[in-house]
Amino acid sequence: MVSRRFYIIFLIILTAKSENITLGNVMKKIVSEYSNSMSTDNNFSPWFFEQMIKLLNCGPLPKLNNSRIQYTLKWEEQKIHLQQKCNRYFEASVENTSDIICWNGKWMYEDKKCKLITCPIFHKPAHGLMINVAYTYNSVIHFSCPSDYILRGNDSMRCQENQQWSSLPPVCEIVKCLPLHPPKHGNINNTNEVKVNEIVSFTCLKPYNVKGESVLTCLRDGNWNFPTPVCTLKCVVPEIAGRVVTISEGTILKPRTFINQGGKVLYSCKRSFIPVTFGVVQCLSGKWYPDIQCRKTCKIEKLHGLNFILSHNFSVIEYSCSAVETLLGDSKRTCLENGTWSGKLPRCVKNCQLLPGFGIHSYRNSDTLKYLPFGSTVTENTNVTYSCQYPYVNNSTDTAICQNGVLTPKPHCSHPSIRLINSRVIFTYESSEYHVCETKYTCKFFGYRQKSCYHENCFHGDYECVEVGFNNATSEIYVGSIVDDCCVMQCND
After folding, report:
1. CB under 8 Å to 431, separation ≥6 — which residues?
2. Which long-range contacts (CB under 8 A, 24 or more apart) does 387-394 make?
3. What pLDDT, on the 0 to 100 scale, is given for residue 149?
4. HEC secondary structure over the chain
5. CB 384 within 8 A of CB 363
6. Distance CA 352, CA 340 (A)
7. pLDDT band for position 31 (50/70/90)?
8. Are 101 and 110 in contact (CB under 8 A)?
9. pTM to 2 decimals?
10. Cβ atoms of residues 90 and 71 within 8 Å
């Protein structure tokens, strides 16, 4: 559709050049065609307008500042009009000016003089300063206030494309500090707003004391130079303490010295006393937390073989024994206020080891009947029952008690064919009695020990000396040949 219109107009232009058709008639036809086209389609190319300008024969278009030619046509009073349009961010300084007109071979127009768009002019803030003052597009104005004033709002604003400022102008307000309130148990000399460099003073009622700065100054930024103080009670160094040292300054304090709220100290106690609490104590609301307290020390009682450790600031002692011993008594004692330990001093006693004695078959706990293997141990006052292997028998009882590392009475099994007569071991074999004379076998097998040996004729009255042996594998006693060497034996007990 558009190409057809260009073609028609192009033919009109050629016809006007080849025939003697007046320019006015040609322009009437072109503008008429242009107007009809604008009602349905406005996509005319710049080439078309350039051709129209050539027909006008007014020479090159005038050069305009900060603006451009708007390619629109109208035909009035034998004149053709073009329009001037300002560039982006610019606006015409003269309103309702005539368009650009080609008349008698010359361009006639009044330049609109496009200038940058501007934002509204405003008054300088009271007591304020403005820097880089300009009201044109993209200009930035900076604001500041004197030293005794504070700026409320943005310290700068920019002129925008919509001819509005990015924010409202700020204001300068005289600097004041907010009123302060008297602390609990205290007073203040001024509860109103104050100006820069003015001061307020705080006092406390007795016996309270000011913690913090008692005089505050209003700063240029509207804040006080120190936090509001409080009224607190002081703490007193008690006379029971031996040495009290401040944490921050390392000063040694005497008894009855006053310490301000929040003060921290380390303390020790006088001789023969120890602190109840170790570490740092602090003064809070007139009291020490934890409290400064000293108590009498308890003398450490030492006993051979008895181990101990101290805990809870030397107020508790805990005892222990070696692995082969049993602790009898209280394992833990507390140091009392009078300087003595609670309870009684315990002692360590040896455990009893259960050995595979002669003829003994096994051991059991008398109370629980639990089997106790050879080599194991039992603690003090444990009752032990033992049994003898056949054919050995116990002499009187089959129980013993552990007392300080020894089973009492000592477990004893003996062979029924061996007995002691007049300090001599007599062996009965097939209704005959023989003196035991062999020395190479240890007498512990028989529950006896050797006293002395001698060489003699082994006929003592009706008795003959015989060699008695012991089979370790079978625990059996056997009779050997008659010998001449005799041993005198006696009981282990």
Report:
1. none
2. 387/360, 387/361, 387/362, 388/359, 388/360, 388/361, 388/413, 389/359, 389/360, 389/361, 389/413, 389/475, 391/415, 391/416, 392/358, 392/359, 392/416, 392/475
3. 85
4. CHHHHHHHHHHHHHHHHHCCCCHHHHHHHHHHHHHHHHCCCCCCCHHHHHHHHHHHCCCCCCCCCCEEEECCCCEECCEEEEEEEECCCEEECCCCCCCEEEECCEEECCCCCEEECECCCCCCCCCCEEECCCCECCCEEEEECCCCEEEECCCEEEECCCCCECCCCCEEEECEECCCCCCCCEEECCCCCEECCCEEEEEECCCCEEECCCEEEECCCCCECCCCCEEECCEECCCCEEEEEECCCCCEECCCCEECCCCEEEEEECCCEEECCCCCEEEECCEEECCCCEEECCCCCCCCCCEEEEECCCCEEEEECCCCEEEECCCEEEECCCCCECCCCCEEEECEECCCCCCEEEEEECCCCCEECCCCEECCCCEEEEEECCCCEECCCCEEEEECCEEECCCCEECCCEEEECCEEEEEECCEEEEECCCCCCHHHHCEEEEEEEECCCEECCEEEEEEEEECCCCEEEEEEECCEEEEEEECC
5. yes
6. 34
7. low
8. no
9. 0.36
10. no
Looking at residues 470-490, what average pLDDT do you find? 58
Give me the residues paired with residue 389 across strands. none
CA 186 to each of CA 189, 203, 233: distance values in angstroms, whole numbers, following the listed order: 11, 6, 12
Q: Model confidence over 86-96: pLDDT tens digits?
A: 888 888 876 65
Asked if 399 and 369 touch (Cβ cutoff 8 Å), the reply is: no
pLDDT tens-digit readout, 192-242: 988 888 999 999 988 788 888 999 999 888 899 999 998 888 888 887 767
Measured between alpha carbons, how far is 365 from 38 in angstroms, rounded to an integer? 124
Burial of 488 (0-12, 13-18, 19+ CB in 10 A): middle
Question: Cis (ω within 30 of 0) for the bond into 229?
Answer: no
* Stronger pLDDT, 307 or 240, i.e. the higher one: 307
pLDDT band at 38 (very low <50, low <70, confident <90, very high): very low
pLDDT computed for residue 225 by the predictor: 93
What pLDDT sits at residue 449? 47
**How many CA atoms, within 13 angstroms, populate the side-chain half-sphere of residue 142?**
3
Establish how many alpha carbons lie within 13 A of residue 13's alpha carbon, considering only the half-sphere containing its beta carbon: 18
Cα 151–Cα 154–Cα 157 angle in degrees, nearest 5: 130
Closest-CA residue to 222 (of 155, 267, 183, 175): 175
What's the mean per-residue pLDDT of the chain?
A: 77
